[in-house]
Amino acid sequence: xxxxxxxxxxxxxxxxxxxxxxxxxxxxxxxxxxxxxxxxxxxxxxxxxxxxxxxxxxxxxxxxxxxxxxxxxxxxxxxxxxxxxxxxxxxxxxxxxxxxxxxxxxxxxxxxxxxxxxxxxxxxxxxxxxxxxxxxxxxxxxxxxxxxxxxxxxxxxxxxxxxxxxxxxxxxxxxxxxxxxxxxxxxxxxxxxxxxxxxxxxxxxxxxxxxxxxxxxxxxxxxxxxxxxxxxxxxxxxxxxxxxxxxxxxxxxxxxxxxxxxxxxxxxxxxxxxxxxxxxxxxxxxxxxxxxxxxxxxxxxxxxxxxxxxxxxxxxxxxxxxxxxxxxxxxxxxxxxxxxxxxxxxxxxxxxxxxxxxxxxxxxxxxxxxxxxxxxxxxxxxxxxxxxxxxxxxxxxxxxxxxxxxxxxxxxxx
Length: 414
Ligand SMILES: Cc1cc2nc3c(=O)[nH]c(=O)nc-3n(C[C@H](O)[C@H](O)[C@H](O)COP(=O)(O)OP(=O)(O)OC[C@H]3O[C@@H](n4cnc5c(N)ncnc54)[C@H](O)[C@@H]3O)c2cc1C
Known about the structure:
- It is built from 12 helices and 19 strands.
- It is an alpha/beta fold.
- It is globular and about 65 Å long.
- The mean pLDDT is 95.
- Flavin-adenine dinucleotide binds next to helix 1, strand 2, strand 13, strand 16 and strand 17.
């Protein structure tokens, strides 16, 4: 039966939920306090990262942490004055860096990520959004074969999930990717991958497709929920009260205060990330890459060459730092020594991250309020499938994957 559904937040997760729900015949209103796609979904690396099944808090993090924190060229940054607020999340995050927990997390990430390219293609079927999806290979770029070998833990997990790379060394590297200078002596290449040519353009075109199908969009800031006992009756916005049968929270990092309104203490923190967009570059890589010596993605996009990644722990209120941008620029100059460009743009965004590295996808108790946020480094990748899962849950047709790892009620008793 058709329901009145409000989707809160028009990033990739909100746009995908809105589109799938509208396709299922519901009366859907998509809300955003700003323009669609201006949150984390604006500036990501555009990678459909089917391979990103090893969580950031992998067991090796303990060994690497002191070096990460002391070395200015490491990809992890901390705003130290934010540490007191960050501490509870950080403790939980590090507790999850045990091999048993880490393996469980990887197992739970596989069904969300492994068919992402296909999921994005079915999300966009029959719409103009399809033109933003590119089929590609994906390479991890290493200084030496030994650095690839040192990554054995992650590659073993990927191999278990069926991802075995072709390893290229020496002159084969430049044959595969002529943009690489001599600093890169090893590429681990995965085929059958994909990327998005313009993440903002993609989200906006999804919202356009949703509107063309009869969905409605309104710029409004959601402040609270109105409930009849347990069940949602309306959302309260700065533009007034909007009645609904169901609400879906897809507000990225800003979902945390909305959860607090419902009495859920979700330990959501941001892993801030940065990009440098090189406009009119003299050369582009043939396919996207992960630059392992700075932990950032390198993606050929419609508007230039985007280099995006790094992690900075520092909350959402403090302004951007210079060091992560310096790191990206320096590494890019080293690995692509012949690259020139007309101008460049810089950006910082907020990945929404839980300490167990798993998103919240499901219904809060039997409230009619659903969550679809907390996708940390892989929200673009998992966004399309998340939208389909939410649509299935609302239709009460049981998804064919185990949803328990993403259950939002895991935070209910806190
Ligand atoms: C540098 C960087 C690189 C990345 N690279 C990749 C990558 O290559 N591949 C990948 O899969 N992921 C990547 N990510 C992660 C990915 O970008 C995020 O996981 C994803 O964009 C989260 O999407 P979202 O829809 O949950 O949130 P967002 O895109 O942040 O959208 C949330 C929306 O909710 C709106 N909103 C918030 N509060 C309210 C409210 N109260 N009322 C109404 N609207 C509200 C906001 O305005 C915003 O538009 C990267 C992230 C960063 C920072």
